[in-house]
Amino acid sequence: MEVLKDLGLKNNFFLVLCFGPLLICSCYSVERDCKKFHIGLFEFSTLINGEIKTSYFSRTEDLEIETYEGKIDSASIRWVNDCECILTKLNPKSNQDKRPVQIKILSTEGKSYTFEYSFVGKSDNKQRGTIKKIN
């Protein structure tokens, strides 16, 4: 305490003790190693009408092919940056299917990533999910 007094910091010692850990914690950054999720085989599970449904999809640099309940669907994928892409169905069957989907990877951890998605131009209705890379 004598050292603090000599430095004129005695009154600020309490503030340093209280806010020091807060400053250290605020430096924490979320991992976003998005490039490793551009290509591969993935699994996505979601709750629909009280039941967990799972779809599988493979992704190349510019194509995504999804299998869901025995149906196969494909979309072009355009990466806007390392963590954001736009999916556009190749064979849309309805007007809603024609609307591109914007995907943003929020965080990555090991073999999975958390993302948010919405129709392009409809950012007021964003959904979130987690995808697991299986190969």
SSE layout and pairings?
Elements: H1 2-6, H2 13-25, E1 40-48, E2 51-59, E3 63-68, E4 71-81, E5 84-89, H3 95-98, E6 101-109, E7 112-119, E8 127-133
Antiparallel strand pairs: 1-2, 1-8, 2-3, 3-4, 4-5, 5-6, 6-7, 7-8
Summarize the structure.
The protein is α+β, with helices and mostly antiparallel strands and 135 residues long.
How many alpha or pi helices?
3
**Strand-residue proportion:** over 45%
- Fraction of residues in helices? 10-25%
Shape: globular
Give Rg in angstroms. Answer: 23 Å
Distance between the termini: 58 Å
- Category from helices, strands and their pairing: alpha+beta
- How many domain modules? 2
* CATH architecture label of the largest domain: Beta Barrel
Strand order of the main beta sheet, please? 1-2-3-4-5-6-7-8
